[in-house]
Structure formats: structure tokens, C-alpha cells
Write a structure and sequence with these properties.
By secondary structure, this protein is α+β, with helices and mostly antiparallel strands. The protein has eight helices and four strands. Strands 2-3-1-4 form a four-stranded antiparallel sheet, sandwiched between helices. A hairpin with a 4-residue loop joins β2 and β3. The protein is elongated. It is a multi-pass membrane protein.
């Protein structure tokens, strides 16, 4: 008799990761699979003693991800005494929250001073990451249902940010204003340094709890967006045009909306599953 077997997946933080994991599962001969990037949960509709389980676990491990089996009755990992709630873990997350929210406010002010839409979009990215990390701190030890609800809030918040950035940037297309490229570049370089700092303090935890690893990966990937803003500032300075700034702002808004769609989709599915 089959039932749902769940795993927490360490290292899965985007749709591309989910696609790789699904491919690995199918390579082991299992086709009834549900994957949520919002909660890093993999669900298989198999018997508890199904001979394909070891093959699935091996295939996912070979793909570069780590699995922890979740006990059906409690929602906790099998063999785990308590959630990953050490003082060092929480302290690092609070450092990341302060860095993101603090510099997000500074960069938003800088965006208005320089007239840069890319800086404003990046500032919203900082503030969004701060909120996501804050919700991650609150959700430590929560049940799957409440983690999914937390993820749904994150997804809606990111969607609102994405629509706001898109609308404001569209308005700026028709009313372009001069941009202070020098100050824009300085603020973007500082933003890059802040994200690198956040990634560094998370490195000791990147292979532990899946939520911590996801935060570390977000910080690492955000550095790419900061680098794009630096490049945009240089292009604005060289060309004297505001288009590089607007293009980067649209790109960041697109990332907001895509991430929001994935998180909301997965969170709604997890909420439905948890209520069954």
C-alpha cells in the first residue's frame, strides 16, 4: 500500500533545482513526485518499503542535494531530536536581517537622490530578503502547514514589490530624469559588499538546515544583481543615457515576479496537502 513519503531537501532554492531533482527521481523509476521550492519539501507516493527509495536517494545525492526523511506522524526529520535552533544559527540570521533591512533603507534613499530605478529595485530586493529571513526565523520548528503559510506571505509580498517596481519603471520610461552615475556606482559597490558579508557569515551553516542554506544561496545570488547595478552605473556614466538603469530595474522586477509566482504556487499546494 502506497502513501506519501516526504523529504526535506538541502540546497533546493529555485525552479531549476526542482527540475534537476525531479529528473533524478524519474531516473530511479519513480514518477509520482511533488516538489516544493517554497518549503524545500520532496513528496513521493510510494510504499514505505519500496525498493526504489534507495535508488531515489542515491540519484538525488549524485545531483548534489542532501535529503532528510520527515516522519509522517510528527512532521520532524526521522532521528532528529529538535529543529536546528542553536544560538549561533539564530544570531547569524539576525545579522543577515539587520544587514538587509538596514542597507535596503539606505539604498532606497540613495535611489531617490540619484534618480536610479535600479537602485530602488535593488533596495526593495534587500528589504524583501530581510523580510523572508525574518519569517524564516519565526518559522523555525513550525509545522508544514504554518511554514507553507509563511511562504505564501513571502510570495505575495514579493509579487507586490515586483509589480510596484515594474509600474514605477514604466512611468520613468516616459519621464526620464538625469541620473547621478557616480553616487549610483558607489552605492551599488557598497550593496555588493553588504551581500558578500551576509554570505560570509552564513557559510558555516550552508550545509546544515535547509532554510539556512536557502538564505545563504539567496545572499550569494543577490550579489549578481548588485554587480548588474554596478555595470548599469558604468554604462550610464559612459553613454549619458538612463536606459541601462531602466533595463536593470526591469530585470530585477522580473526576478521578483518569477520568484513570487513559484513561491505562491508551491505554498498553495503545500497548504492543500497539509490540510488533507
Amino acid at each position: 500500500m502506497s502513501h506519501v513519503i516526504r523529504y526535506r531537501v538541502t540546497g533546493m532554492d529555485c525552479p531549476s533545482c526542482a527540475a534537476k531533482i525531479e529528473k533524478a527521481v524519474r531516473s530511479a523509476g519513480v514518477y509520482e513526485v511533488t516538489i516544493s521550492t517554497a518549503t524545500q519539501i520532496l513528496a513521493l507516493n510510494l510504499g514505505a518499503d519500496d525498493a526504489r527509495l534507495p535508488a531515489v536517494e542515491h540519484a538525488i545525492g549524485e545531483a548534489g542535494y542532501h535529503l532528510d526523511r520527515i516522519a509522517a506522524a510528527t512532521g520532524d526529520r526521522i532521528g532528529e531530536v529538535a529543529p536546528h535552533t542553536t544560538a549561533a544559527y539564530r544570531r547569524v540570521l539576525w545579522i543577515v536581517i539587520v544587514l538587509n533591512v538596514g542597507y535596503g533603507v539606505i539604498e532606497m534613499v540613495g535611489g531617490f537622490l540619484t534618480g536610479s530605478q535600479a537602485l530602488k529595485a535593488d533596495a526593495l530586493d534587500f528589504l524583501g530578503d530581510g523580510l523572508i529571513t525574518f519569517l524564516g526565523v519565526l518559522a523555525i520548528g513550525w509545522s508544514l502547514l504554518w511554514r507553507a503559510r509563511s511562504a505564501l506571505v513571502q510570495g505575495v509580498f514579493l509579487a507586490v514589490l515586483g509589480m510596484g517596481v515594474t509600474g514605477n519603471t514604466l512611468w520613468r520610461v516616459f519621464s526620464q530624469q538625469p541620473i547621478e552615475a557616480g553616487l549610483m556606482g558607489v552605492l551599488a559597490f557598497i550593496a555588493l559588499a553588504v551581500n558578500i558579508t551576509a554570505a560570509l557569515v552564513l557559510i558555516p551553516h550552508r550545509a546544515g538546515d535547509s532554510n539556512v542554506r536557502a538564505v545563504w544561496l539567496f545572499s550569494r545570488n543577490d550579489a549578481i544583481g548588485n554587480a548588474a547595478v554596478v555595470v548599469a552605473a558604468g554604462m550610464v556614466a559612459v553613454t549619458g543615457s538612463g536606459w541601462p538603469d531602466l533595463i536593470v530595474a526591469f530585470a530585477i522586477a522580473g526576478l521578483f515576479l518569477h520568484s513570487a509566482w513559484v513561491i505562491i504556487r508551491d505554498a498553495r499546494r503545500d497548504i492543500a496537502d497539509a490540510r488533507r
